[in-house]
Amino acid sequence: MPKVPLTFACGLTDRMNALYTGEVQPEGIDLDFLAIHHPSDIFDRMVGNQELDASELSASEYITRHVAGDRTFIAIPVFASRAFRHGFIAVNDRTVHKPADLADKKIGVQLYTSTAAVWIRGLLEQQGVDMSRVQWVEGAMETPQAHSQPSALPTPKPVSIARNSSGKSLSQLLEGGEIDATIGATCEAPVS
Question: What's the predicted TM-score (pTM) here?
Answer without folding.
Answer: 0.75
